[in-house]
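Help needed: design a sequence for this.
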């Protein structure tokens, strides 16, 4: 595994880059303050921008660590930071990652998250050299499952009452992609 950390990735409509402290306002306004965005997430919506800034102050020094992968999604269309995609768990011994992502409601339904996830998976398989990239969603949040499918992950199964988010204890649906099948299916590696 190559611990190359959070490097800038460009897609057709997005620039995926490290967070900066001055992203706090966009992050708060576009997604972190919205309880509809956080409904199926493990953290509650932020009550004020100071909390968002505090979180960014915690994240930013972690970029020194090449095993830390956490991208701000910047829209090329309007220059705003509109969401976040990151590795939430990295299992170095088996070269596996679990992904997490969220984005402002105004940007839903345009295929932006599948675009970001595909690009991040290309980077994590191709440059970092991971073997497995997985993600899980609440069974009641199927639109996140669509993101996983569109990005090329395969359904693995449902773990009953295996997660907890802002709606309570929930069944979790797991998807994953493996490096060998990723190459076979013609991703840009
Ligand atoms: C889940 C999420 C990342 C989807 O991103 P996205 O860029 O909108 O994804 P897509 O455009 O590919 O849409 C995915 C599905 O969402 C649904 N959808 C589309 N537009 C929508 C809208 N305006 N409002 C609600 N759902 C919508 C559709 O079912 C779509 O699937 P389809 O293309 O097969 O019809 C985004 O909704 C989000 O940030 N949600 C809140 C955070 C979250 O749940 N994160 C995942 C935790 S596991």
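Sure. Designed sequence:
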């Amino acid at each position: 595994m190559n611990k190359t950390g959070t490097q800038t990735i460009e897609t057709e409509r997005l620039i995926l880059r490290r967070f900066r402290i001055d992203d706090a306002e966009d992050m708060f306004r576009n997604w972190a303050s919205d309880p509809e965005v956080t409904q199926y997430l493990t953290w509650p919506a932020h009550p004020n921008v100071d909390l968002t800034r505090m979180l960014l102050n915690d994240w930013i020094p972690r970029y020194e660590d090449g095993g830390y992968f956490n991208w701000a999604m910047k829209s090329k269309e309007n220059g705003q930071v509109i969401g976040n995609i990151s590795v939430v768990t990295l299992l170095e011994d088996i070269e596996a990652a679990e992904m997490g992502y969220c984005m402002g409601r105004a940007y839903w339904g345009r295929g932006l998250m599948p675009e970001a996830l595909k690009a991040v998976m290309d980077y994590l398989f191709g440059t970092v050299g991971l073997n497995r990239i997985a993600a899980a969603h609440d069974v009641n949040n199927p639109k996140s499952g669509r993101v996983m499918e569109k990005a090329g992950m395969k359904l693995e199964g449902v773990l009953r009452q295996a997660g907890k988010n802002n709606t309570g204890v929930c069944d979790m649906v797991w998807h994953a992609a493996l490096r060998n099948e990723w190459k076979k299916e013609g991703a840009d590696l």
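The two ends are 16 Å apart (CA to CA).
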